[in-house]
Amino acid sequence: MSAPLFDAESLRMGEPARPDVAAPAVSEVPDPSSRPRRQIPEPAPLSGHGPATVLAMCNQKGGVGKTTSTINLGAALAEYGRRVLLVDFDPQGALSVGLGVQPHELDTTIYNLIMERRTTLDDVVLRTAIEGLDLLPSNIDLSAAEVQLVSEVGREQTLGRVLAPALADYDYVLVDCQPSLGLLTVNALACAHGVLIPLECEYFSLRGVALLMDTIEKVQDRLNPDLEITGILATMYDPRTLHTREVMARVVEAFGDLVFDTVINRTVRFPETTVAGEPITKWASRSQGAEAYRALAREVIAR
């Protein structure tokens, strides 16, 4: 087993402040999101496409901005001339809904792709309204795959096998994992080159990272020795609150340069984009949220 990626004790926040003890002033806690940022130039245009880098967007805690980040990072990468395939690997189908697809109306999804040999990528892949951005949709049918794959030989490599024919046509494949550490998530990690971890700047999200890191280490040791952590993305950041700034400071302290310079702030724009079925880079192209995901795309390309 490889050496631990970090000391889980370093993420402990200690006991919450007691009501009868004065809390420190917000100004006493520096804003980690304002730390010096690395200068990252605009990505150079590509002369061709592929082979794709596969990134698993992973966090076993729900509601951390994972699906939102998958959609908007994919759209921002497409803006920079990259061909991107988004893989909805969550039975809830939130990624599909966020791109204007109604999962319950689909006859063929990624479930059919991984469970039926006669189904091909071309049968399932959907073009989106964003040039260069394609989607492998999902719906509730995928929940059955977790049970059905248990008896399969090489069950952890199923997703990798069906995605292999697409790698030559894309520059990035982003897999939106379900909020658990089950067999579907292990499949995504087993075929990925890197893991991008959206992390809500909130205490319980921070404590759950240790479980995720343990799973990543096991996958590295047993299934995919080339798997790396591409980076940790701070989401739902609100610099006005002391708690958010403390959590962010702990993340930077524990993970250092693994933490992206880009920080995704809370904004009402993101729920609006879900209703609209469009990425924020198209729905509100000049908003701070759109610029943040463009900055994240530049960092991902640079890494």
Q: Could you give the topology of this structure?
A:
Layout: E1 53-57, H1 66-79, E2 84-89, H2 94-98, H3 110-115, H4 121-124, E3 126-127, E4 133-136, H5 142-148, H6 158-163, E5 172-177, H7 183-191, E6 194-200, H8 203-222, E7 228-237, H9 242-255, E8 259-265, H10 269-276, H11 280-283, H12 288-302
Parallel strand pairs: 1-5, 1-6, 2-4, 2-5, 6-7, 7-8
Antiparallel strand pairs: 3-4
Family: Belongs to the ParA family.
Domain AAA: 53-229
InterPro entries: AAA_dom (IPR025669), DNA_Partitioning_ATPase (IPR050678), P-loop_NTPase (IPR027417)
Q: Given the helix and strand composition, which structural class is it?
A: alpha/beta
Q: Tell me, briefly, the overall form.
A: globular
Helix content: 25-40%
CATH topology: Rossmann fold
Number of domains: 1
Beta strand count: 8
Any idea what the radius of gyration is? 19 Å
Average pLDDT for all residues: 86
